[in-house]
């Protein structure tokens, strides 16, 4: 009986170390990007699609990729992309730059996914 109790206690104390099934804890930044952004964007330098490439986006002025037709709202936004602005934009693009031209995209609701996407974008320019 005592041995069974010890095994049970060991098992119970190990539970927080087990993966949380049913949660998206295993989603990488690249996967989150692919799920939410890849339809229109890539991180490959010079590879513009329906949206501009996002290679080296951190520190770049909004609307400045050559050979891409931006909305007037994006070109005149005076935004320089940083982590904070990207997080807000990915959550709700229209609230950050009204008339940005990204319809029907309405944003990523998951704060965790937004954080993963920005981390991926920051690492993709290196």
What can you see in these coordinates?
The chain has 126 residues and is mainly alpha-helical. It has a single domain, classed as Cytochrome c-like domain (Cytochrome Bc1 Complex, Chain D, domain 2). Helices cover 41% and strands 0% of the residues. The model is unreliable at 1-24 (pLDDT under 50).
Write out key terms for the chains shown.
126 residues, mainly alpha, Cytochrome Bc1 Complex, Chain D, domain 2, 6 helices, 41% helix, 0% strand, disordered N terminus
The ordered string of helix (H) and strand (E) elements is HHHHHH
Helix content: 40-55%
Number of strands: 0
- CATH H-level superfamily title: Cytochrome c-like domain
List the helices and strands and how they pair.
Layout: H1 2-14, H2 29-36, H3 72-75, H4 83-91, H5 93-96, H6 111-124
Summarize the structure.
This protein has 126 residues and is an all-alpha fold.
